[in-house]
Amino acid sequence: MLLPKGRPVHRDLGTAYVKMDHLVRELREEGFSGYLCLENPEFTGVLFFEQGGISGVYTEPPTVDPLLTIMEEASREGTVNVYGLPPEVVYILASAARGERVYEALPLEIIHLDRLMERLERESFTGIMKLEDGDRDLTVLLFEGDQVEFLYEGEEALQGEEAMVKMEKLRTSPTALLYLFRSSGEERKELEFDPQEVLEVLGGFFSAYRSQVERALGEGKFERVFREASLSLAERFPFLDPFAPLIRITPGGLEVDEGLSVIRLLEGIRELVRKMNSVVGEKKGEEAVRGIMGALAPSLADQPFVGSLFGEGEE
Length: 315
Hints:
The protein has helices at 20-29, 66-73, 87-97, 113-122, 161-164, 167-171, 195-217, 221-233, 262-284, 286-300, and strands at 7-14, 34-40, 43-50, 53-60, 79-84, 100-107, 127-133, 136-143, 146-153, 157-159, 177-182, 247-250, 253-256.
């Protein structure tokens, strides 16, 4: 998905220093319009905001539950950028993200651009057309065939008529490429990230994990393994400190103090499970660890947050 930069709000924030759930809540409360882009070497995720509502989500590669996956990926090393845009521009971008890629990296020199624009007008096309030439690109946003906005990025950032005049230079370049995205036409639905839902998923994981660990090591051994692993991670994740814990593993699942970032929690939980599995492996062998995680995988691996615990915990 090719996106215009817009007005920079946050640039190149390291995910290690960002509480993603807090940032999303802040943007919602401010009535923000624009998008948040999270990137790491293997993933790109975009949240679109229209006047505070999350109106669309895009991920590359595609995922079953893109919103929750973006929140999970925030616990990995990467960067976050936030750009402000007019609400009507965000609508086109968000709907195009859910739509069809009509053309991708098509050489512009083989296309009669004026005829293409006329056809898009006749078809009442809604979506995005982008002309790209190295470090220069022009984005044309179309709504029901009308060209509603031009955005240019290159030696300078331009918008509106100033950006439109750049089209002539790009259209005559022998190296320019054309991208065209058609909007989905689906009814907009505001999306929510619910931290409580995440905690319930994690609680379900630990409830099942407890029984599997005690089956391998013996009744009552889970708490000891949990404390041992938590203590080794307390310097990196103070909320795991067993002498002043902000999270507690209970027979019913997981209890978490209010105010703790869910995304930071996920990062700590991922390391905690890895450490606990290491302890189990030392006592009972790696076959026991594979048995534990294998038993949990069918019911929990499809959950966006705990899915990444599988495999990693065996390292």
